[in-house]
Design goal:
By secondary structure, this protein is α+β, with helices and mostly antiparallel strands. It has two domains: 2-111, Butyryl-CoA Dehydrogenase, subunit A, domain 2, CATH 2.40.110.10; 117-268, Butyryl-CoA Dehydrogenase, subunit A, domain 3, CATH 1.20.140. The chain contains seven helices and nine strands, in the order αβββββββαββααααα. The protein has helices at residues 2-7, 117-153, 165-194, 202-230, 246-253, 258-269, 276-282; strands at 11-14, 30-33, 37-47, 55-62, 67-73, 82-86, 98-108, 155-156, 159-160. The strands form two sheets. Strands 1, 2, 3, 4, 5, 6 and 7 form a seven-stranded mixed beta sheet that branches. It has a two-stranded antiparallel ribbon with strand order 8-9. Helix 2 (117-153) packs antiparallel against helix 3, helix 2 runs parallel beside helix 4 (202-230) and helix 3 (165-194) runs antiparallel to helix 4 (202-230). The radius of gyration is 23 Å and the shape is globular. The mean pLDDT is 86.
Length: 288
C-alpha cells in the first residue's frame, strides 16, 4: 500500500457483495490458499473507485473459513481473470461505484494481510466513516449556503424570506449543529493522527459510527430544507440540485447503512449489566 500512501496511486476496498451489504459477515467471495498463491473467486458490488483502482483490499472467506483480506494489484485494471464495470448511480457520480468480478484470480501469498479479516474491516471502517462524515459536512455546507443566501435576497409578501421564523430557525439550527459536528470530526481525526492504534478501539469505532449517523442525517435534512427554501429554483440545474437529495442519501448508506448502525448503537446503549447485588443473589448458598 506504499504506492497509495506515497505516490498517489488509487486504492479501493472491496467488502460489499450481492448478499452481504451492511451485514459484511455474510461475505461469500472465496479465497483459496495453495502452496504459493491465493486464488480469489467471487463478485463484489458498490465498490468506490473499483474500476479505476491500482490496488484493492479484497475481503473474502479464506479456505471457506474465517474472513481474510488480501491486497490486489490490478496492474492498471489489466489483471488476468479480473473485470470491473461501472454501476450507474443517481448520486455521488464522482465515486466511480463499480462491480468487480474475480474469476479465479491468482494472487501472491505474501499479499495476504495478517489477522482476522473482520478486525481489519472494522479498523478500516472507523477511518472510512470519518471520511464519509467529512463528505456529508461539506455537502451540508453547500446546501446551507444556498438556503442562507436565497433567504437573504428572496422577497415574498413584502418581506425577505429570512424574516419568517419558519425559514430562519431551521437554517440557524442546522448551522449550529454543523459547527458542533465539525469540531467533533476534527477532534477524532487529531486523536487518530496522534494515536493510530485507536483505529482498533471499540470506543473510537462507536464514536465514529455515531458521527457518521449524525453528519449524514444532517446533510439529508439540509437538502430537504434547501428545496423548501428555494422553491422551484431549487430544481433547476443552475443550482446543481438535481442530485441534491441523492448525494446525501447515498452517504446515509455508505460505510454501513444508518438503519443498521443505529440499531447496533441502540443495543449498546441498552445493553443490560446486572448490578452486583443481583449477581450475588444468583450465587448458590452453601450451609456448612
Amino acid at each position: 500500500l506504499i504506492p497509495v500512501a506515497r505516490e498517489g496511486k488509487i486504492g479501493a476496498s472491496a467488502m460489499t457483495e450481492f448478499n452481504a451489504g451492511s451485514d459484511i459477515f455474510r461475505m461469500e467471495l472465496a479465497l483459496q490458499e495453495t502452496d504459493d498463491m491465493i486464488v480469489a473467486k467471487g463478485k463484489k458490488l458498490f465498490i468506490t473507485n473499483g474500476m479505476i483502482a491500482d490496488y484493492i483490499i479484497l475481503y473474502g472467506r479464506l479456505n471457506n473459513g474465517q474472513l481474510a483480506a488480501v491486497v490486489v494489484d490490478t496492474e492498471n485494471q489489466q489483471l488476468k481473470d479480473f473485470r470491473s464495470t461501472r454501476v450507474r448511480t443517481y448520486g455521488m457520480t464522482d465515486a466511480f461505484v463499480s462491480r468487480l468480478i474475480f474469476d479465479r484470480v491468482e494472487l501472491p501469498k505474501e499479499n495476504l494481510l495478517k489477522g482476522h479479516g473482520l478486525d481489519i474491516a472494522f479498523h478500516q471502517l472507523t477511518e472510512e466513516r470519518l471520511v464519509i462524515s467529512a463528505e456529508a459536512l461539506g455537502d451540508t455546507m453547500k446546501k446551507l449556503l444556498y438556503s442562507h443566501a436565497y433567504a437573504l435576497q428572496r422577497k415574498q409578501f413584502e418581506q425577505r424570506l429570512h424574516q419568517y421564523q419558519v425559514i430562519r430557525f431551521p437554517i440557524s439550527r442546522k448551522i449550529r449543529e454543523l459547527n458542533l459536528l465539525i469540531s467533533a470530526l476534527i477532534q477524532y481525526v487529531r486523536q487518530l493522527d496522534k494515536h493510530p492504534e485507536l483505529a482498533g478501539s471499540k470506543l473510537m469505532a462507536a464514536n465514529t459510527m455515531g458521527l457518521k449517523i449524525s453528519t449524514t442525517e444532517l446533510g439529508f435534512e439540509s437538502s430537504i430544507h434547501c428545496f423548501r427554501t428555494m422553491g422551484g429554483r431549487g430544481f433547476t440545474r443552475q443550482y446543481a440540485n438535481e442530485i441534491g437529495l441523492f448525494d446525501p442519501f447515498c452517504m446515509i448508506h455508505g460505510g454501513g447503512s444508518n438503519y443498521v448502525l443505529e440499531d447496533s448503537e441502540s443495543r449498546r446503549f441498552f445493553k443490560y449489566k446486572p448490578p452486583r447485588r443481583e449477581i450475588e443473589d444468583t450465587l448458590p448458598k452453601v450451609d456448612y
